[in-house]
Amino acid sequence: MTRYHRVTGERVTPNSNTTRDGTVVDDQARNLREEVANSLKGFNDGTQNAFRTLVEFINSQLREFGDRLNAGTKNIDEKVEGIGTKQRWPRLSEQNFRVDKWSLCRG
Q: Between vectors from CA 47 to CA 42 and to CA 48, what angle results, nearest 5°?
């Protein structure tokens, strides 16, 4: 019985590479490989998009944290400068000490 390939029209003789209806097993394998490759490509694209979104989110959160940290540091620096200008701390040699029976006191 002579059969012909569905796509190419070539004559196909029954052997180990054909199925009962005359289709070539290699074509089925190629179609399955293409299907698997397309599925993997779709999965890869989805994974890349998910990680891209995650990286953008982390970058924005890190940028916001850095901005808040800089604002807090600036606020602390301003308070420290204000303390230094409000109060003059006398040197140890300028202070008057007295010694009583139990301790050293400023007096």
A: 100
